[in-house]
């Protein structure tokens, strides 16, 4: 099967999953029904920008569109984790080895008493955290929030931000960044 036929088959399957006719997809992408028909039969190849418009209208992105589901790893055993510890005893454990190819990145942060993680500069996306043990302060722009065991936090990452210890024992935080930034 040619690459054009593979692309066409994927577009047809996604269109059908979304309950769209060829004409509805053509209207949403400002293309013709004839072009969509030729594309789905593998008789023509779209430009990158046209393919991007089509897959976005179908509720996905180019990365997922070309990702082979057969290679998708679902379970990540502890042996696959990667841990980095600094000179103060703070540690970051990457829980998903391939997170850079995903839309989010979960890490486990262990923060020693009196310590702080480095300031993270503003960037796109969001940050979410859940305090598993201890108590921390979330520094978000010029504001500070105290977050204790069992509490969570979420914020857009468009301001400088960091976390610091707010207790006399090790604090553990499940931290999820979207998109991956660590």
From TrEMBL:
<feature type="domain" description="HTH cro/C1-type">
    <location>
        <begin position="11"/>
        <end position="65"/>
    </location>
</feature>
<dbReference type="InterPro" id="IPR011051">
    <property type="entry name" value="RmlC_Cupin_sf"/>
</dbReference>
<protein>
    <submittedName>
        <fullName>Cupin domain-containing protein</fullName>
    </submittedName>
</protein>
<dbReference type="InterPro" id="IPR013096">
    <property type="entry name" value="Cupin_2"/>
</dbReference>
<keyword id="KW-0238">DNA-binding</keyword>
<dbReference type="InterPro" id="IPR010982">
    <property type="entry name" value="Lambda_DNA-bd_dom_sf"/>
</dbReference>
<dbReference type="InterPro" id="IPR001387">
    <property type="entry name" value="Cro/C1-type_HTH"/>
</dbReference>
<dbReference type="GO" id="GO:0005829">
    <property type="term" value="C:cytosol"/>
</dbReference>
<dbReference type="GO" id="GO:0003700">
    <property type="term" value="F:DNA-binding transcription factor activity"/>
</dbReference>
<dbReference type="GO" id="GO:0003677">
    <property type="term" value="F:DNA binding"/>
</dbReference>
<dbReference type="Pfam" id="PF07883">
    <property type="entry name" value="Cupin_2"/>
</dbReference>
<dbReference type="Pfam" id="PF01381">
    <property type="entry name" value="HTH_3"/>
</dbReference>
<dbReference type="InterPro" id="IPR014710">
    <property type="entry name" value="RmlC-like_jellyroll"/>
</dbReference>
<dbReference type="InterPro" id="IPR050807">
    <property type="entry name" value="TransReg_Diox_bact_type"/>
</dbReference>
């Amino acid at each position: 099967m040619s690459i054009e036929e593979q692309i066409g088959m994927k577009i047809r399957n996604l269109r059908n999953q979304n309950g769209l006719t060829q004409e509805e997809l053509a209207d949403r992408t400002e293309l013709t029904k004839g072009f969509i028909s030729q594309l789905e039969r593998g008789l023509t190849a779209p430009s990158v920008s046209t393919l991007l418009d089509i897959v976005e209208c179908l509720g996905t992105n180019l990365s997922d569109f070309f990702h082979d589901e057969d290679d998708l790893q679902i379970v990540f055993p502890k042996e696959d984790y990667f841990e980095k510890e600094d000179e103060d005893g703070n540690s970051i454990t990457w829980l998903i080895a391939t997170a850079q190819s995903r839309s989010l990145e979960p890490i486990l942060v262990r923060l020693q008493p009196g310590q702080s993680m480095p300031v993270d500069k503003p960037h796109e996306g969001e940050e979410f955290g859940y305090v598993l043990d201890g108590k921390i302060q979330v520094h978000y722009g010029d504001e500070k929030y105290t977050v204790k065991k069992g509490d969570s936090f979420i914020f857009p990452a468009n301001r400088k931000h960091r976390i610091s210890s707010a207790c006399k024992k090790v604090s553990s935080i499940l931290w999820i960044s979207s998109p991956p930034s660590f």
